[in-house]
Amino acid sequence: MERQTIVILDLGGPNNQIIARRVRECNVYCELLPFDADIQTIKNFDPAGIIIAGSVNDRQITLDKSIFELQVPVLGIGQGQLLIVRTLGGKASVQDSKYQKAQITVDSTHSLFEGASINFEGWVNQSAKVDTLPLDFCSLASIKQNKNAAIANDKLKVYGVLFHPEYNNTQDSIKILKNFLFNICKVSPNWTMSFYARNYIKSLREKIGDKKVLCALSGGVDSSVCAVLVQKAIGDNLVCIFVDHGLLRKNEADEVEKYFKDQQGINFLRVNAQDRFLNRLKGIRDPEKKRKIIGEEFIRVFEEQAQKIGEIDYLAQGTIYPDVLESANVKSHHNVGGLPKNIKFKGIIEPLRSLFKDEVRQLGLTLGMPERLVFRQPFPGPGLAVRIIGEVTKQKLDILREADAIFREEISLVGLDKNINQYFAVLTDMRSVGVRDEERTYENILALRAVTTTDFMSAKWAKIPHSVLERVSSRIVNEIKAINRVVYDITDKPPATIEWE
After folding, report:
1. Considering just the CA atoms, what is the radius of gyration of the chain in Å?
2. 316 beta partners
3. What one-character DSSP code corresponds to residue 331?
4. Is the pTM of this model over 0.85?
5. What's the rounded Cα separation, in Å, for the pair 220 and 373?
6. Cα–Cα distance between 5 and 171 in angstroms, integer?
7. Cα dihedral sign for 230, 231, 234, 237?
8. Do 395 and 356 fall within a single domain?
9. Is residue 495 reached through a cis peptide bond, with omega within 30 degrees of 0 on the bond before it?
10. Read out DSSP for 141-199?
11. How far apart (Å, rounded) are the C-alpha atoms in residues 102 and 318?
12. Contact (CB, 8 A) for 218 and 335
């Protein structure tokens, strides 16, 4: 069988997952490993090629030379090229991180740049410089006075580019990445969600047999896709527990039950624990305490219900690839509150463990799930409890649910729901003076939050048209008597976070 996996050695940096996502977008499977992964770990993936990328400037970083003895193509990007040069006997330097767009001139006759423009713009660290090339390397591109902006040793199949094709996402930059994958590494573009679903369903059937699987279903994208995929494999042997803690958005709990129980035919157990959660949250104002109480209470409810069901062999959870990259251990901060401590399972099933968020959404569509579930807005595990500043009460939840529903409805009506990555309402703990029916009022202030982002590590506040904001505000203050003022949050992340609590 032909090698099909690309190993990416990560040098660190805030955007370390971008190159992996670009490779996956080319329908090629890749694994992200730390730059100092031992050679046997790399060999275990039987890679068709290796990419070295990252943006952390550290002159102390070194590479294991045996990487270049694996007889597979290697591509260094940005700092990755500098590291290749230093490791193989050349000289390279970098002063700081000053990334700017620059005009790049390339040798379009080389297979790495085949089909790309001779001149194009790319992001590059202006202070990065290759002073002396290693033996038998040649230059393929130049940037201003830097003649070694891309290098190659075709005999070793080792290449480097100082610029970052993963940032541009233009026709030229993607062409360069595809040339490395398809012309040099000779992989095939066979990594699709249809391919993944077929293979995973087959392997899970063989692994599980007639044993039972329990899934904690929150209704979020990850747990929902996880449940549907597992059900496709084992049918009625899957049991999903949905804990309705009363902190969801308007009609959300009913929609989750309708789809999974009525339409999908999954063994679905909805547990009404609204009063239980509200009682635990009574008098609590600190956001961290709210989060811990909700997480702990979820676990208690989950444990109680799981023990009523009887013997369960496996637990399924919606861990996704970014979770795995953040920690070498099983994630304990799953969107349903964490793994139960004292329920024994033979194993954990994580069907989405190798997928990025966009791949999870694509898998959901491939499995026939409706867009409204697949493209559901990101929603914090503690739900509306952390979108109510201060103590959580049923009255406040009802107010926020209605206001949030109006905001989401108006955003959807004007077609902005696919352009804005996250948008929601926050019920503040402030009141203001207002006028209604010629009488003085003293009611709640509601804040609206909307952001655009690619990775949720940073975000820009969304420039929603004033006419839309005006309509949202007018509807909220007219339809919800408990609110008499609406404000819009225009703060980026950083310095703010996306959520208020």
Report:
1. 26
2. 215, 349
3. P
4. no
5. 8
6. 23
7. positive
8. no
9. yes
10. EEETTEEEEEEEETTTTEEEESB-HHHH-SHHHHHHHHIIIIIIS---S---HHHHHHH
11. 41
12. yes
**Crossing angle between the packed helical segments 221-234 and 357-366, to the nearest 10 degrees:** 40
| Residue 439: how many other CB atoms lie within 10 Å | 7
Element of type H or E holding 349 = strand 347-349
CATH number at residue 404: 3.30.300.10
Task: Answer with the one of 184, 219, 254 that is the final residue of a domain.
Answer: 184
What the block records as the tokens of 148 is 């070694």
Query: Looking only at Cα atoms, what is the longest distance across the chain?
Result: 85
Are 234 and 156 in a shared domain? no
User: For residue 27, what is the domain's CATH number?
Assistant: 3.40.50.880
Read off the tokens for 75.
């591509």
What type of residue is 307? Answer: Q
Number of domains in the chain: 3
Closest CA to 9 of 173, 112, 38: 38
| Residues 402 and 327 reside in one and the same domain | no
- How far is 295 from 334, CA to CA, in rounded Å? 10
Within a domain: 433: yes
Tens of pLDDT along the chain (501 residues) come to: 577 899 999 887 766 688 898 999 999 999 999 888 999 999 999 999 999 998 766 666 788 899 999 999 999 998 899 999 999 999 988 877 777 788 888 888 999 999 888 888 878 877 788 889 999 999 998 887 678 889 999 999 999 998 888 876 667 788 999 999 999 999 999 999 999 999 999 999 999 888 999 998 888 899 999 999 999 999 999 999 999 999 999 999 999 999 998 888 899 999 999 999 999 999 999 999 999 999 889 888 888 888 888 888 898 988 888 777 765 433 334 343 344 455 567 788 999 999 988 899 999 999 999 988 898 888 888 899 999 999 999 999 999 999 999 999 999 999 999 899 999 999 999 999 999 888 899 999 999 999 998 767 678 999 999 999 999 999 999 999 999 999 999 999 989 999 999
Q: List all residues 6 or more positions away from 54 whose beta carbon is below 8 Å from its beta carbon.
A: 10, 11, 12, 13, 16, 35, 78, 79, 80
Scan for tokens 């069907």, then name that residue: 351
Which domain does 67 fall in, by range?
5-184
